[in-house]
Each structure stands twice: as C-alpha cells, then as structure tokens.
From TrEMBL:
Start and end residues of each Response regulatory domain: 19-133
Protein name: Two component transcriptional regulator, Fis family
Organism listed in the record: Asticcacaulis excentricus (strain ATCC 15261 / DSM 4724 / KCTC 12464 / NCIMB 9791 / VKM B-1370 / CB 48)
Database matches in InterPro entries: ActR_PrrA_rreg, Bact_response_regulator, CheY-like_superfamily, Sig_transdc_resp-reg_receiver
Taxonomic lineage: Bacteria, Pseudomonadati, Pseudomonadota, Alphaproteobacteria, Caulobacterales
BP GO terms, sorted: phosphorelay signal transduction system
Length: 189
C-alpha cells in the first residue's frame, strides 16, 4: 500500500497543472474533500451547482474534475461533458450516493475516467484521478450479486422506457408478465 501512496505522491509532484474542479451540493462533504485534495497538492475550486461548474469550466477549464452525479439543478454528467469539450485531456471522476451499473456506464460514456460511491475517501479519489499504472485497484469488498446487476439493468431500461412495461419487455426480449413479476419484487441484495 505504501508503494501505491509513494507512486501517487510522485505522480502529483510531476504534474504541471494541478487545477481541480469539485462539484458537490453536500456542503460539509464538499469542504472536507476540498481540504483533503488541497493538502495533497491540488488547486481546488469547489462549487455546489452545475451552473457554477459550467461557468468555471468556460472561464478556465481545470485539469481534473470530481463531480457529483445528482444535484439540485441538474446532473454532474453535463459538467463532465462540458469539461471534455473545453479540455479533452482533462480527467474527471463521478461521485454518487446512488450507485448502479447504468449510471456508471453513463458516467464513463460522458468522459469520466472512474465512478466512485459516496462517501469517497480522498485517497481513493486521487487514485482514480491519477490512475497510477501497474497498480490495479483492489476488488470491491462487497460486489453486487449477479441478480442485483440484472435487476439494476432492468430498472434502467424500464426508466428509459418511461415505465412502459410492454416497451421495456420488448427491448429486453422477455415476456411482459415475467417483467411485471420482476418489477413487483424487491431489489435483490
């Protein structure tokens, strides 16, 4: 573990641009994470809304971004997309308290390099931002079961079909009644 920490510290020391945009509407978490990232050498601009983030990105796009997924005025994916449009070499990660496979895929498609569940540790955030080579992340301690992954996928498709059971069943290539039974059950662990 010390090797990973040393590799991260060395990588931070070699960075020419350490600007970082932190977007989160949870003020205590945002302030705590901003302080922790600043203590690791980043120049942090912390904002609480997508509108503020877009203004910062437009004025001076940072090299790094840490964005919350769900905010009061929109979605953090919009800020990630704007950051990559203004600065394609920027590295951004998504944070969320509502983790599921579909939103992780959406985050990566929008340009995020990783996706972390809240509350995220500052060290995990830095590891994800820098993605130190030759140091694969540890496997999750409590990975989702296959049943949960399937359930999450079905829920995502159902939401994308505006809760239309017939359309969702058609897209998932399953019988409508089977889908109705699945939707009636609680989420698996």
């Amino acid at each position: 573990m010390d090797d990973v920490k040393t590799a991260i510290e060395q990588k931070i020391a070699t960075l020419t641009d350490r600007t970082l945009l932190l977007l989160d509407d949870d003020a205590p978490f945002r302030q705590r994470l901003a302080r922790a990232l600043e203590s690791r050498g980043f120049s942090v601009t912390a904002v609480e809304s997508v509108a503020e983030a877009l203004k910062v990105i437009e004025a001076s796009p940072p090299a790094f971004g840490v964005m919350d997924m769900r905010l009061e005025d929109g979605n953090g994916l919009k800020a990630v997309e704007a950051l990559h449009a203004k600065r394609p070499d920027a590295r951004a990660i998504m944070l969320t308290g509502y983790g599921n496979i579909a939103t992780a895929v959406a985050a990566v498609k929008s340009g995020a390099v990783d996706y972390l569940s809240k509350p995220a540790d500052a060290d995990d955030v830095v590891k994800a931002l820098l993605a130190v080579e030759d140091h694969a992340p540890a496997p999750p301690e409590n990975p989702m079961s296959a049943d949960r992954v399937r359930w999450e996928h079905i829920q995502r498709v159902y939401a994308l079909c505006n809760q239309n059971v017939s359309e969702t069943a058609r897209r998932l290539n399953m019988h409508r009644r089977t889908l109705q039974r699945i939707l009636a059950k609680k989420a698996p662990k």
